[in-house]
Fold:
Amino acid sequence: MTDRRLSRRDLFRLGLAAGPAALASSCGWDGGPALVPKLRAVSRLNDWVGEKVLLSSTRLAPQYPIRRRTPARNFPAYAQSHPLPVPADPAGWALEVGGLVRRPQRLTLAMIEALPRVTYTVKHHCVEGWTAIATWTGAPLSSVIAMAEPTGEARYLLFRTFDAGYSNGWDFKSAMHPQTILAYAWNDLPLTPAHGAPLRVYSPLKLGYKLTKYLSSLTLTAERPGGFWEDLGYPWLGGV
Amino acid sequence: MSDAPKPESAPDAQPPVAQREAEPAAPPAEEAPSRTGDPGEQSPAGPGPLAHEEAEPAVPPPAGSTSPPVSPPVSNARRPLVKRHHGIVRAAHWLNTFLLSGMIASGLQIYSAFRHFGPRGGPYWPNPWDDKVFPQWSRLGGWLAGGLNWHFALAWPFVLTGVAYLAYMVLSGEWRTILFRPRDVPRAMQMQLYYLRLRREHPPQGKHNALQKGAYSFIFLLGVLSVASGFAIYKPVQLAWLVTLFGGYELARFWHFWFVFVFIVFTLLHVALVFLVDPASLRAMITGWYRGRFPSHD
Structure:
């Protein structure tokens, strides 16, 4: 019967189509050397859309009442170094601000604590998919940048750490947002080593891996700096 | 998804059973002219008045032959070959099989990084896959960053395909053959009665029956909801209004994940029904040409 022959042939065609689909989605494949660079190129396009189209300089992340805080034991903390990293000379620690600036700075913790203070209770979004709420206190990053007087060429920021070479590159727009801070307190207490003591970046606008802990320096650059996870393939912007 | 035999196309009324076999038997013309009628509105549903709704937009006889009126032969080979799906619809359909497979596989990879729903530390929400890793063959990307990059790269063609499909449906007027509207409710009930063998005759239909319209409208809506919930968990701060619509970030992620299983169940049923009810529709979705027992236009 013609009907049956038709359906068998079509079944065969369907099989032909399903083959590559199954292959493409099998074996935990990442795309291989041919496709991975292309995927990263699309990721750069997504970064552009994320920064230029979706990110607002003025929209504020919602704040939560203190009772909504995630219990401390449920708030994970990651570091590269084990045991947890500590500055080589804790008493002499200071944040070096340099690069494309007119007035390089060397800011001690006391100097940063003396700057205008921002406190908020916000939701932390991890790239893994979990969220957690905590209170963060610090100085607006924009104040520190203003003190250093960036030159006209400065377009990006590079945060370096004393944590096994961990670093992050940032866009200027996110850095200047009023909720982006250099944080020195977590849930009303000084930062613990697990959460990046003595000073870390915090912002409810970015995923956790962009919120550099264990800061040692801030460099303003003209070229887009990479970063630890970013260089391995994670989205560079990491905005939420 | 298609349906069972039904009285169709016979220019004049015959007893349902006989009518089902009585097709206008155009000679197997390879390139029968595609469509004539405009997809128009149908008359209201109901067993009686509808008998004629089926009068399929006549397929003009191939050049050089005269149209044989009605003749008894039944096999699909003797039915006219008609254009059923526009190229845009077929391209969108098959692109989606690849894109959606890739979106789901990379999504399962992303899920592996945090295999719960709900607040960090629990209590976690009901989820049969709580704390479970999907098998490696079902995941795309190799690790979290790879899964994310695949997911966010495939999202572009997935959304663009949906937009192109929607634009075509709206501009061509074909949306009438798909969109489930209030008046399709009684028709869908009749169709369901027929499937349950509580109704003898196949209710009249146009290109798709009312249950199909419901299914296809629903799955498009599900696609829209998947994309919307995806954007909500992609930029939960910038798109806070969208997050609110889904009940918060954690719930949006929960829905986004569950939509996947609805897609999978839909696809299994969809493929099963193609082969069970109207295998000729597979050819129509591949080449656009259909030689089967259902009308190709409303």
